[in-house]
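F.,

This is the one I mentioned.
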């Protein structure tokens, strides 16, 4: 009886969290998350049964007034890069109407027109380059929303909000499953409450989904460590890590977690299953790299060539990575974009919130850790730490060989939000994994109020009242 009451109470709490999150999402106009249109376009193609992107059609003209774009298109054709696909013209018009530069300038008549945009059934090629790296499975929630909306003859805007709601619901379900397996440590909850984390989770991109799925994998891992005699289907965890590794290449090291559990329990069949999914993830990454081999680089270099170069010159890589994090401008940007620079990096928080939230994270970290408990499952903790460290290294390497001109002095294109999951891995590694006590809930409540205040203030300042 008591167990059932606790279970029902848990679902009520998660339901309230979902409703609160839905209310917060109403403060964010469509298409304001970085590369949101590319992600939504990829989801639309999947909703139409097109799992992979198409190369550039020959009929698309090469612009003569922009040499950089011209060179990029020419190279894309020569490399047969899979860049995009045919999107519904109604969806493209909806996205164009929500460009970051104009979203606050819409008159009421414009808002009404945008709200009534319909699916047209007419397709136009749209570049979605950058999403080809991602395995289609991570887009299923968004694709489901767009598919349902289009087939019910809803407007594009209604379909968009359905996709956003389903994606957010999927995140809440994954997080609730994680918490049921093993309590998310206070510092982990605080990291999920950061304005940047919340902003991405409230948007129909893949950031929130991959973060929530990663938290589930970490909780499954902790549960397996603490309950070595309990049967845990490793293939469930391996599939989850496969989805993570094929949508966020830097999370490939998380395969160490199910492999360690299989080794610890001497379940060699589970080890083989993990290896199989790991091999499939690596194969996908190699295939994606080959099909987009250095498109953002100058013609004399390819991503594969740069990988080979840095494999032979590892110290060059370390020097560039260290120079990047110690550069004064880059360092401040990384710190602030980890806490939150919202929108298309055009919506910073009020300056006072950055030191306050960093201090709050430090307090939550201190409340989560117990040095005396570190010897408990220390090898499992070391696996989490190793996964985090390797993941950080891959972030720098991936951007260095795909986005940064060579020779490089600093890694280009790196943002603080990329480090959320590695930081969560460290949080799980260093926490005592006990049920959160009342005093810690109070601490988290204060942090949540601070983080939500920062988020809401920034959103209202940038976008005005509820859209």
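My design for it:
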């Amino acid at each position: 009886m008591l167990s059932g009451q606790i279970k029902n109470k848990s679902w009520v709490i998660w339901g309230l969290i979902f409703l609160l999150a839905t209310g917060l999402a109403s403060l964010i106009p469509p298409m304001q998350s970085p590369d949101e249109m590319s992600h939504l376009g990829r989801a639309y193609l999947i909703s139409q049964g097109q799992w992979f992107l198409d190369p550039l059609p020959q009929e698309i003209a090469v612009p003569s007034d922009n040499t950089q774009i011209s060179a990029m298109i020419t190279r894309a054709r020569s490399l047969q890069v899979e860049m995009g696909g045919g999107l519904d013209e109604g969806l493209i018009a909806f996205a164009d109407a929500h460009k970051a530069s104009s979203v606050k300038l819409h008159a009421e008549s414009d808002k009404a027109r945008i709200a009534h945009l319909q699916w047209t059934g007419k397709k136009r090629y749209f570049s979605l380059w950058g999403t080809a790296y991602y395995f289609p499975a991570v887009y299923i929630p968004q694709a489901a929303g767009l598919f349902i909306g289009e087939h019910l003859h809803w407007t594009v805007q209604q379909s968009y909000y359905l996709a956003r709601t389903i994606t957010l619901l999927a995140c809440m379900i994954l997080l609730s499953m994680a918490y049921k397996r093993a309590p998310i440590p206070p510092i982990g909850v605080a990291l999920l409450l950061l304005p940047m984390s919340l902003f991405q989770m409230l948007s129909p991109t893949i950031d929130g989904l991959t973060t929530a799925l990663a938290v589930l994998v970490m909780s499954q891992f902790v549960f397996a460590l603490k309950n070595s005699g309990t049967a845990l289907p490793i293939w469930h965890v391996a599939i989850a890590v496969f989805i993570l590794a094929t949508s966020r290449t830097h999370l490939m090291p998380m395969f160490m977690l199910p492999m360690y559990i299989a080794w610890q329990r001497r379940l060699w069949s589970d080890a083989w299953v993990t290896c199989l999914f790991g091999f499939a993830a690596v194969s996908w990454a190699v295939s994606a790299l080959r099909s987009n081999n250095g498109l953002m680089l100058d013609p004399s270099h390819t991503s594969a060539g740069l990988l080979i170069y840095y494999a032979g010159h590892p110290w060059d890589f370390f020097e560039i990575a260290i120079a990047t994090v110690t550069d004064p401008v880059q360092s401040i940007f990384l710190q602030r974009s980890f806490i939150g620079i919202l929108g298309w990096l055009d919506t910073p928080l009020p300056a006072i919130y950055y030191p306050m939230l960093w201090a709050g994270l430090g307090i939550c970290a201190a409340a989560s850790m117990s040095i005396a408990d570190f010897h408990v499952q220390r090898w499992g903790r070391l696996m989490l730490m190793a996964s985090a460290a390797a993941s950080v290294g891959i972030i720098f390497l991936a951007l260095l060989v795909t986005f940064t001109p060579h020779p490089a002095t600093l890694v280009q294109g790196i943002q603080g939000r990329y480090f959320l999951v590695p930081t969560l891995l460290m949080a799980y590694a260093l926490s005592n994994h006990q049920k959160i006590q009342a005093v810690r809930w109070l601490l988290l409540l204060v942090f949540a109020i601070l983080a939500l205040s920062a988020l809401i203030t920034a959103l209202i300042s940038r976008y005005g009242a509820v859209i």
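The chain has one domain: 2-463.

Talk soon.
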